[in-house]
Predict the structure.
Amino acid sequence: MPNLVRFVPGWKRLALVAAPVALGVAAVVGAYLYSTSTPAASAQAPAFPAIANLGLPAPPGLLVFVSGAVENPGLYRLPRGDRVYDAVAAAGGLSLDADSTRLPNLAGRLKDGEQIKVPFAKTTSGTVITRTNLNSATLEELEVVPGFTPAFAAEVIDYRTNYGGFQNTRELVDILGMSEADYVIARRYVTL
């Protein structure tokens, strides 16, 4: 074979050009194969990688547990220097049942492994929440629902009349355009 290469005129120049091109093609193919295999491995990753991969170092940041009267209690990884407020926000914010008079110090700095407990409001035994049926309530009953305005109550009546009623309370946001903030308040007081 070495004698065959000598018969090609300019074989040294050809080798100098072909070698980097071959290395570049090999690098592109390797990167492509690596990138197509990575999503499949990450799709099967467990929900708590810090717990499942005990042999690997933990990702940077603080791991905190938010429990109690928040929308989505659970474990959250937050950057160092974040405050308790950031942890509560990561958990979806305060739920309607949160006791705003007994909250943890929202301005406090987080520590790794800390548990933030958001207390529930204590209800008195005489308090009863009356739910208003969206498909049968009168205009006056809908106007007093927290989060409803008189104009929005009229829209609910019009929608119910024209389209046969509601299938889900979430339709207040999805179809009628109620704000998320008003829906968070109103959903506790309405039913179907």
